[in-house]
Amino acid sequence: MKKMMSVTVALLVGICTVAWAQQKGPAAGKDVFAKDPSADAQQQMYDKPLPEIKGVLSWKTLGEVKPVKQKDKFVPEFAKAVSSLDKKEVKLQGFMMPLDMGEKQQRFILTATPPSCSFCLPGGPEQMVEVQAKSPVKYGFEPILLTGKLAVLKDDPMGLYYRLTDAVITVAK
């Protein structure tokens, strides 16, 4: 358990560090501590959960999981509604947390809430999905909508609960 936790923490710290490194620094000559007037409006947008969209898998549904102790470790116990989604094609919206350097990402973490701090995780394992996209996706701070095949992970060595493979950007209708 300790080894799995340390690997998970190392992975997530790496994710946050990459995301932080990709953010543009202040422009030359700009006061680093000056308040951006649009920052309050942006923060208010990010404080709200993503709106539910018909036909899109809800983060509330993905949250229907609880850790259960088995021998010397904890494993996820998924609600029937979640388990039934294993190996099914789903649509999912969320915020990208890059795993690699670069403007485009083919493998990244999708989160229910936007990262509000470069050093903080935006939620627990039920609020994150590892994404393996068919083709690279441009990194941005706005929510994205993806379609792909969902894997419900029962004993992932990295501590993840979900993976979306063959993912493609989807346009909301």
Q: Can you tell me about this structure?
A:
By secondary structure, the chain is of the alpha+beta class. The chain has one domain: Beta Barrel (OB fold (Dihydrolipoamide Acetyltransferase, E2P)). 23% of the residues lie in helices and 34% in strands. The chain has a 5-stranded mixed beta barrel. It is globular and about 45 Å long.
Low-confidence stretches: 1-11, 13-34
CATH class: Mainly Beta
**Strand tally:** 7
> In CATH terms, what is the architecture?
Beta Barrel
Helix segment tally: 4
Terminal CA distance reads 43 Å
What is the count of distinct domains? Answer: 1
| General shape | globular
Mind describing the biggest β-sheet? 5 strands, mixed, barrel
Strand pairing plus helix content: what structural class?
alpha+beta
> Roughly what percent helix?
10-25%
CATH names the topology as: OB fold (Dihydrolipoamide Acetyltransferase, E2P)
Q: Let me know the average pLDDT.
A: 79
H/E element order = HHHEEHEEEEE
Strands side by side in the biggest sheet: 3-4-5-7-6
> Hey, roughly how much beta strand do the residues contain?
25-35%
Rg measurement, Å: 17 Å
What is the structure about, briefly put?
This protein has about 170 residues and is an alpha+beta fold.
Descriptive labels:
alpha+beta, two-stranded antiparallel sheet, OB fold (Dihydrolipoamide Acetyltransferase, E2P), 5-stranded mixed beta barrel, 173 residues, disordered N terminus
Topology:
Blueprint: H1 2-22, H2 37-47, H3 59-62, E1 65-70, E2 73-78, H4 80-83, E3 88-98, E4 104-111, E5 128-138, E6 144-152, E7 162-169
Parallel strand pairs: 5-7
Antiparallel strand pairs: 1-2, 3-4, 3-6, 4-5, 6-7
